[in-house]
Design goal:
Strand 4 and strand 5 form a beta hairpin. The protein has two domains: 165 residues, no CATH class; 145 residues, Histidine kinase-like ATPase, C-terminal domain (Heat Shock Protein 90), CATH 3.30.565. The chain has ten helices and five strands, in the order ααααααααβαββαββ. Strands 1-2-3-5-4 form a five-stranded mixed β-sheet. The C terminus is likely disordered. Helix content is 60%, strand content 11%. Helix 2 packs parallel to helix 4 and helix 4 packs parallel to helix 6. The chain has 409 residues and is an alpha+beta fold.
Length: 409
């Protein structure tokens, strides 16, 4: 058997209105205050006046849960009340039923009831004016409008305001939700950017430290150990300095130091020389063609130069970790449309000799993200085989849009 749904209890305000209306009606009935004289009533019994009053008072309890039923039955009760001497409390409670039917009823009912009551008001006014042939006939229409059309129009206005408030509240909630989503996306993007910067700035130095510390521990040669310790110290100092610069930036301007300028292509030569010092123990040699010519003296956009610098930096770090003995070649080619960065190294079939630092795989992800942010293309993988080994190539094409170029001095 299905679950039985119990009727919802009446609202406390509805109970209060029903009790007040019933008490007022009984008081008027007891005092003998009626709406019309005995000559206009069809039923003269005073006890019959209480039937419409009790019915309408009971309908007040379901004005929210059954607004349509309450209005239909209340209309019949109002007509019955007019056949007696009438009670003003019955009429007042009926106007509340009309109001509730518009406010709590269906959207279709909320549209139809004001129109219907308006037509009834006009029809009653014209009908009594034509019947009585006196201007007083319009007063009947006015009273009809006060009982039916006025509460219906008030209910329509209140419902419209409530719907507008609900719509505004929904828009505010949606706006807050979108703002929270944007904030989270911004936080995630900022964390990813910070992770790329931290990895690119420190990974090279730590790789060199790991390689030379392994060499110092594995080789029993005082000269080699001293040279390795010198490289370790140099990379430690440089890595610490870069970490300090990054921390200064993360302080959001609360530090006293000026932020370090973003790396440019002019610093790639120093990167190559640093990698050459760190890669000597692994049998690596480095070749650098030099920065591309500045066609017409127009500088590259800062984001493009930073991305190219970081891609070269991470490629050299990966070469220190994974490349077999041989030459690591760095080449840059610039056109009006794009800057091409290419780093090649020998990647042997077997594990290379000499100490190597472990890798996490985050470098390739960071390089690919940097290229994607600029709308470029990134490739990393084996190229043509030469000399019995495989050539590992990292290639990035970074677009240079004309509207992104900085004006030349």
């Amino acid at each position: 058997m299905g679950a039985v749904t119990l009727p919802r209890p009446p609202h406390r305000h509805d109970v209060l209105m029903s009790a007040i209306g019933l008490a007022l009606g009984l008081l008027l009935w007891r005092l003998g205050l009626h709406m019309q004289g005995p000559q206009h009533a069809v039923f003269h019994s005073d006890w019959l006046m209480l039937v419409p009053l009790l019915v309408v008072a009971g309908l007040e309890l379901v004005r929210r849960t059954l607004p349509r039923t309450a209005l239909l039955v209340g209309t019949l009760a109002l007509v019955a009340d007019q056949l007696t001497r009438g009670n003003i409390a019955t009429v007042l409670m009926f106007t509340d039923l009309v109001y509730a039917a518009v406010v709590y009823g269906t959207p279709a009912a909320a549209r139809r009831i004001p129109v219907t009551t308006g037509l009834i008001t006009v029809g009653v006014s014209l009908g009594f004016l034509a019947w009585w042939q006196e201007p007083e006939g319009l007063l009947v229409g006015v009273l009809t409008g006060l009982v039916s059309f006025a509460p219906a129009a008030t209910g329509a206005i209140v419902r419209a305001h409530r719907e507008a408030a609900d719509a505004a509240r929904l828009r505010a909630e949606q706006t807050a939700l979108l703002a929270e989503m944007d904030r989270r996306e911004a936080v995630v993007a900022e964390r990813a950017r910070m992770a790329r910067e931290l990895h690119d700035m420190v990974a090279g130095h730590l790789s060199a430290i790991a390689i030379h510390s392994t060499a110092a521990l594995s080789l029993d040669d005082p000269a080699t150990t001293r040279e390795a310790m010198g490289v370790i110290r140099e990379n430690s100092v440089e890595g610490l300095a870069e970490m300090r610069r990054l921390i200064t930036l993360l302080r959001d301007g609360t530090g006293h130091e000026e932020p370090a300028p973003a790396p440019t292509l002019a610093g790639i030569g120093a990167l190559v020389r640093q990698a050459e010092t760190a890669g000597t123990a692994g049998g690596l040699a480095f070749a650098w063609d030099g920065p591309p010519p500045q066609d017409g003296g127009a500088p590259l956009p800062a984001p493009v130069e930073l991305a190219a610098y970081r891609i070269v930096q991470e490629s050299l770090t990966n070469a220190l970790k994974h490349a077999a003995p041989g030459t690591v070649a760095v080449a840059l080619d610039r056109t009006d449309e794009a800057l091409t960065v290419q780093v090649t190294s020998v990647h042997g079939e077997a594990a290379p000799d000499g100490p190597r630092a472990p890798g996490s795989g985050a470098g390739l992800v960071g390089m690919r993200e940097r290229a994607a942010l600029l709308g470029g293309v990134f490739e990393a993988g084996p190229a043509d085989a030469t000399g019995g080994g495989r050539i590992w190539r990292v290639r990035a094409v970074l677009p240079v849009r004309k509207d992104d170029k900085e004006p030349s001095a």
